[in-house]
C-alpha cells in the first residue's frame, strides 16, 4: 500500500476577493464571498457551512452530483459559505438529502462515503477500486495508522480495506474511491 498525506496547512490555494479554493488531489475545499459565483463541471458538491445555490438551494445535509456545467452561487448578502467540490467521472445527475447514521458510513453516491463518529469508534471500508482519497472534514482520525486532523487528506493506492478510528467526538470524514 502506498500513501500520500496532504496536510491542511500545506494545500495549494487559489484565491481572490470573492473566492478561495484549497486543493487536495481531486477535491477542492472552497469558500465563496457573499453574492459571488463560480463555475464547475462533472463534480459532487457538498455544502458544509451555509447554503449554496446551483439549480436549487442546497444546505448542509444535501449533496448534488452533476455531469453538466453548473454555476455555484453564495445566496447570502453578507456571509461566507464553505463547501466541498469533488471531481468525478460519474455521468449521473442528482440531489440527495442525507443524515448521518452515527458511527457508520453513509453512501452519498457510488464510491463516495461520508461518516460522523464518536471518539474512539472505529470502522473499516472495503474498497473496490484499490485507490481512495480520505478527507477529514471535522475532528481527528487515525486512518491506516496515520493521524489526520481537520481538512487533512490521505491518498491511498493498492489498498483493499481502509481502517480508521475517530479520535474526537463528532468527527466527520469523507472517503472517495478513485478509479
Supply the key terms.
179 residues; mainly beta; seven-stranded antiparallel β-sheet; 19 strands
- Summed over residues and divided by their number, the pLDDT gives a mean of 94
Largest sheet geometry: 7 strands, antiparallel
Q: Strand order within the widest sheet?
A: 2-3-4-9-5-8-10
Roughly how many Å is the radius of gyration?
A: 16 Å
Overall, the morphology is globular
Number of DSSP E strands: 19
The separation of the N and C termini measures: 16 Å
Percent in strands: over 45%
* SSE pattern: EEEEEEEEEEEEEEEEEEE
Helix fraction by DSSP (H/I, runs of at least 4):
under 10%
Total count of helical runs of at least 4 residues = 0
Low-confidence stretches: none
Category from helices, strands and their pairing: mainly beta
Give your account of this protein's structure.
The protein is an all-beta fold and 179 residues long. It is built from no helices and 19 strands. A seven-stranded antiparallel β-sheet has the order 2-3-4-9-5-8-10, with no helix packed on it. The two termini are 16 Å apart. The protein is globular and about 40 Å long. The model has no long low-confidence stretch (mean pLDDT 94).
Amino acid at each position: 500500500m502506498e500513501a500520500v498525506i496532504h496536510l491542511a496547512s500545506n494545500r495549494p490555494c487559489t484565491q481572490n476577493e470573492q473566492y478561495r479554493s484549497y486543493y487536495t488531489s481531486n477535491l477542492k475545499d472552497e469558500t465563496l464571498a457573499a453574492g459571488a459565483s463560480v463555475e464547475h463541471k462533472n463534480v459532487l458538491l457538498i455544502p458544509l457551512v451555509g447554503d449554496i445555490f446551483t439549480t436549487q438551494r442546497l444546505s448542509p445535509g444535501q449533496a448534488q452530483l452533476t455531469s453538466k456545467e453548473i454555476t455555484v452561487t453564495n445566496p447570502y448578502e453578507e456571509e461566507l459559505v464553505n463547501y466541498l467540490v469533488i471531481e468525478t467521472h460519474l455521468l449521473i445527475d442528482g440531489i440527495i438529502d442525507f443524515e448521518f447514521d452515527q458511527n457508520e458510513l453513509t453512501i452519498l453516491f457510488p464510491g463516495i462515503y461520508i461518516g460522523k463518529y464518536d471518539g474512539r469508534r472505529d470502522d473499516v471500508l472495503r474498497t473496490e477500486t484499490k485507490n481512495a482519497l480520505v478527507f477529514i472534514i471535522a475532528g481527528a482520525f487515525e486512518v491506516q495508522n496515520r493521524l489526520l486532523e481537520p481538512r487533512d487528506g490521505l491518498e491511498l493506492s493498492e489498498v483493499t480495506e481502509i481502517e480508521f478510528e475517530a479520535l474526537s467526538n463528532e468527527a466527520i470524514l469523507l472517503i472517495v474511491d478513485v478509479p
